[in-house]
Amino acid sequence: MTSAGALKARVVEVVRETAEAHSLVLEPAEGDRDRFSYRPGQFLTVRVPAEDGWVARCYSLCSSPVSDDRLKVTVKRVAGGLGSNWICDNVTEGDVLEVLRPAGTFTPASLDEDLLLIAAGSGITPVMSILKSCLAAGAGNVVLLYANRDERSVIFADELRDLAAEHGDRLTVVHWLESVQGLPTAAALRSLARPYAGRETFVCGPEVFMDMAGSALTGLGVPAGRVHIERFFSLAGDPFDPAVPEEGEDADGADGADGSAEGAAEVEVEIDGETRTVPWPRSQRLLDVLLRAGVDAPFSCREGSCAACACVVVEGEAAMDANTVLDAQDLADGLLLACQARPVSDRLKVSYDG
Question: Which cofactor does it need (predicted)?
Answer without folding.
Answer: FAD
